[in-house]
Design a protein that fits this description.
The protein has about 230 residues and is of the alpha+beta class. It folds into two domains: about 5-95, no CATH class; about 115-230, Protein Transport Mog1p, Chain A. It has helices at about 5-10, 20-25, 30-50, 65-70, 75-95, 100-115, 115-120, 125-135, 215-225; strands spanning about 140, 145-155, 160-170, 170-180, 185-190, 195-200, 205-210, 225-230. It has a six-stranded antiparallel beta sheet, sandwiched between helices.
Length: about 230
């Protein structure tokens, strides 16, 4: 199970005891942390939806119910429950939205780490092949980017995006041009021995992933500058 599969499975069922999920969480601190955040949100929503039941027939109402006028207080309890639920949803949404870019970088790392052939390719990609991969996204690469040894269009977040591997002086890096995904600012994440950097771009965003590569932030900026975004 990779990071993307883990986060999809945990997003659907945060408290799942599936062995594959547990095994991945044990070896990936970032995904384990993501699961704990989702569980905390789930518990928060459960508490927000919890409401005291109405008194059973023959059972005396509490002093609070009597003070509120007995049965007439039921709508008030429903209003309180609705207010708590809305508050819980807002808090949960705020928690999730506060980390969108690292989550994206983590998904990119998960995708890159499970295409080992892309990292080991050494043959230079022909210019016409690069045009086939980049053309539909309306971009192209300047020569300053370095040697491209892998180029294909991958299905990512329900979109086809360019996936490249560029050989730099500090080692190979994987590049994703995510024209469909907007980000508010630069983000960085480290998972499974990989480091990912996401930068906002004129056309969505760009993600650069390295493994045992120093100064990845500098490399990401150099790759960004080598992209002609208005091709």
């Amino acid at each position: 199970m990779n990071c993307l599969e883990f986060r999809r499975a945990v997003g659907a069922e945060p408290f799942s005891a599936d062995q594959a999920i547990e095994a991945h969480a044990a070896g990936c601190p970032a995904c384990a942390r993501n699961r704990e955040e989702l569980r905390a949100m789930d518990a928060l929503l459960a508490r927000a939806m919890r409401v005291d039941p109405a008194p059973a027939p023959g059972r005396p109402a509490s002093s609070e119910s009597k003070a509120a006028g007995g049965p007439a207080s039921i709508p008030q309890r429903w209003l309180a429950m609705a207010a708590s639920l809305v508050a819980g949803v807002l808090i949960a949404a705020t928690l999730w939205l506060s980390h969108p870019e690292p989550s994206l970088a983590g998904e990119v790392i998960g995708h890159a780490s499970h295409e080992p052939d892309s990292w080991t390719a050494h043959q230079v990609v022909a210019e016409d092949r690069l045009e086939e991969v980049l053309g539909p996204s309306g971009v192209r690469l300047r020569a300053a980017v370095g040697t491209v040894t892998y180029a294909r269009r991958c299905f990512f977040e329900r979109h086809w995006v360019p996936h490249l591997v560029v050989q730099t002086a500090r080692g190979p890096v994987t590049v994703f041009l995510l024209g469909h995904r907007q980000v508010d600012g630069p983000a960085r994440v480290e998972e499974q021995g990989f480091v990912g950097v996401v930068l906002p771009a004129p056309r969505g965003s760009i993600a650069v992933v390295g493994r045992d590569v120093t100064e990845l932030d500098t490399i990401a900026r150099q790759v960004f500058d080598a992209v002609d975004w208005n091709a």
